[in-house]
Amino acid sequence: MTAPVDQVMVSVAEDTLPQVLDDLREAGLVVDTVLEALGVVTGTAEVRAIPALQAVPGVLDVERQWRVQLPPY
User: Fold this and answer.
1) What are phi and psi of 66, to 5 degrees?
2) Burial class for 27, CB neighbours closer than 10 Å (0-12, 13-18, 19+)
3) CA gyration radius, the chain
4) Distance between start and end Cα atoms, the chain
5) Which domains does the chain have, with CATH numbers?
6) Residues 6+ apart with CB under 8 A from 1
7) Which ranges constitute the DSSP H helices of 1-73?
8) Are 11 and 59 in contact (CB under 8 A)?
9) C-alpha 10: how far from its chain's center?
10) What distance in Å separates the CA atoms of residue 53 and residue 71, rounded to the nearest whole number?
11) What is the per-residue DSSP string for 4-18?
12) Residues 6-63: pLDDT tens digits?
């Protein structure tokens, strides 16, 4: 059985993005998009890896992205 995976958006402190990006990958983030001007990284991570992402120095916030599905499915 595979672990649950969530889309996440990570906010990073100003001027720390290059070094934080490598640390996020090591903590379990599969990077989709890097929005350097905004200090935001989006990607996927196992739910159990979210505390490790939050503990990376330079990370301000980790938000889980919620999906909304309207009919028809």
Assistant:
1) -95, 140
2) buried
3) 13
4) 25
5) 5-61 (3.30.70)
6) none
7) 17-26, 50-54
8) yes
9) 4
10) 34
11) PEEEEEEEE-TT-HH
12) 999 999 998 899 889 999 999 999 999 999 999 999 999 999 999 999 999 999 999 9
**Contacts of residue 19, Cβ cutoff 8 Å, sequence gap at least 6:** 58
What tokens does 8 get? 């996440």
The Cα 29–Cα 12 span in angstroms is 14
Residues 6 or more apart from 26 whose CB is under 8 A from it? Answer: none
Q: What is the pTM of this model?
A: 0.84
Structure tokens at 24: 């996020």
Tokens of 36: 């350097």
d(CA 42, CA 44): 7
Residue 41, helix vs strand vs coil:
strand
